[in-house]
Amino acid sequence: MTKRHLLQLEHVGHAFDEGRIVALKDINLDFGEGESVAILGASGSGKTTLILVMCGIRTPTRGMLRWRGEPITTLKQWTDLRRSEIGIVFQDFNLFSTLTAAENVEVAMFGSTASTAERKRRVDRALGTVGLADRATHLPQELSGGERQRVAIARSIINDPKLILADEPTGNLDSKNAAAILDLMFDLQKARGSTLIMVSHAPEQAQRCARQINMKDGEVVNEQVTRAREEAL
Amino acid sequence: MNHVELAFRNLQRRRTRSILTILGVAFAVGSFITLYGLSRSVHENVERSFEEHGADLTVKRRGIAEPFGGTVPEEVIPEIKKIPGVKDVAGQLITFAATDKGDNVLAAGWSPDSFYWEHVPLKAGRIPRPGENRVALVGSDIAQALGKKVGDDITLLGDKFKIVGLTDYHSVINRNQVIVRLADLQELTFRAGAVTFLAVKLDNPGDQAEADRVSQAIEAMGKFTVSPSEGMLRNDSLFGLMTAVSSAMAWVALFMGVLMVLNTLLMAVLERTREIGILSAIGWSKERIMLALIIEGFILSAFGSLVGIVLGIAGSKFLSSIPSIGRYVAVEPTVPLIAVTALAAVVLGVLGSFYPAWVATRASPAEALEHA
After folding, report:
1. Which of A27, A52, A179, B354 could be stapled to A58 by a disulfide with Cβ–Cβ 3.0 to 4.6 Å?
2. A231 vs B341: which has the higher pLDDT
3. Is ipTM > 0.90 here?
């Protein structure tokens, strides 16, 4: 089966402190449409830096990234991709404390051409999808950790992105909420056919992805197809 | 939700910071309106008081800095009256004089044949009769402040004057002025035969060429300076100094206000560095983030200006209500002054938002997201 390329990394490297601290070394990865991928590794292995490079929040100090085969070379390209094609879910939610759940979701639609009514309909639908229809007018501080992450997930899918990047999305949640959030993310990924790339510490979470990338000291040490992939095949 | 609604939500939910910033703008605008209004009002009130007496030109001793410090000899009046185009000439002696209870009032001495008497609006009583001495016309405001009425006595420079009438002028200075016979005031101030300035009435007040000819003829007599009555203070160095000081204070108030607003906006943006990183992470361009911050600056400045206008008008009324100020100056900020100040505050607020907004978008999204 031919995989349709979504995001490709070619010899990507990233260094901090004027090159003294190397976070990523010569990364070559290819992500296809509809894939679910887990990135595993110990703290400091470069997982989060890799995620941030894959959405343009960090600029690689060497190498190149391609979106659907086209090189991404400008900040504007990345901004456009994050606005419409890439959704991001952070470990610590990153919600706006002054905005309600609905407004936190809607703020990701600024710049879209959707009418006010259409925006409201999509926000309602996204909050309904993550099970927070009745919490739309609550501020983040009035929500539990699990509910906040659901708002963040609703925000990440509001523009119907092709790629969702999740940086340890359950890292700040208890086991019950963590399981529920993972269920929600995988259900959404399957239902929408989007690509999910998730950073995780936990091997049992990574097993739910079709593909697993293991990192150490800024390098990809191995890739493997998981049981989930084998079962899917 | 659009950018403006988003800005309002942010400002509403950071109420304390928003209110403090609005108050900062308001105090700057209010101080400027009050202080600049005060400096303008000094000029306007003095000029208005001269206009009410019906003079076209004012003749003063050349080179004296204090407005009431120089004197002109009365003996030149007949010579000036001979100049073609001159209809009439009147001398006026002016001094600040101690009165009852230690108050000082502006006392004016007029000669019996002065054309000034023709323009006196009487509220009560009458004007002095020929040959009457130690009689006074008292302005309506100072009469009220001192509790005087027609028939009462008023003390000027230690001598008692009988109040024969109350005047009802429009200008604050004239409403607080005590008018006596010129000879009486000359005697009390030891300035026999001298007046503070001469007021000249022209045959054709609208004829600028004639006014210029008359002015040149008077100045050719030596040691005199002539100016249109409405512009009498334009070249006065003491009033110029007063205006400069009050204007400088007004500008300093505005400048400090702008700096404070700039600092508040900068602090507000810096404390939201992480939020700005999140906006960038969800696809907001730098231009859009700057726009959102500038809209917040605009809203804060606009509300601050509105509150500042109210404070400025209230401050002006308060200053006018202080006897030592209100007796000589009615601080009345004009509509153009209010409009220009408010507009300037909004423009400065928006311009002041550019720098914090630029600082905010200069950091990389990754650094912004790592901000605590």
Report:
1. A52
2. B341
3. no
- Sign of torsion over alpha carbons A131, A135, A136, A139: negative
| B:254-283 residues touching chain A, CB 8 A cutoff | 274-275, 278-283
Residue that wins the pLDDT comparison between B356 and B210: B210
Which pairing describes strands B177-181 and B104-110: parallel, antiparallel, or unpaired?
parallel
> pTM, whole model, 2 decimals?
0.71
- Judge whether B135 and B180 are in contact, CB under 8 Å: yes
Rg (CA), chain B: 29
Given the structure tokens 């028939």, which residue do they identify?
Answer: B151
| Closest CA–CA distance from residue B22 to any residue of chain A (Å) | 19
Structure tokens at A108: 């990701």
Least confident range from A170-174, B164-168, B169-173: namely: A170-174
pLDDT band at residue A1 under the 50/70/90 scheme: very low
Q: Give how far A110 is from chain B: nearest CA, Å.
A: 8
Q: Find all residues with CB under 8 Å of A232, minimum gap 6, and list them.
A: A210
Chain B contacts in chain A segment 107-166 (CB below 8 A)? 107-108, 110-111, 119, 139, 155, 159
Count how many residues are written for chain B: 372
Which pair of tokens denotes residue B360? 């905010």
- Asked if B365's CB is within 8 angstroms of A108's CB, the reply is no
Burial call A93-129: b when 16+ CB within 10 Å, e when fewer: bbbbebbbbbbbbbbbbbbbeeeeeebeebbeebbeb
Please state, for a pLDDT cut of 90, what percent of chain B lies above it.
24
For residue B59, give Cα distances in angstroms to B85, B198, B224, B231.
Answer: 15, 5, 6, 12
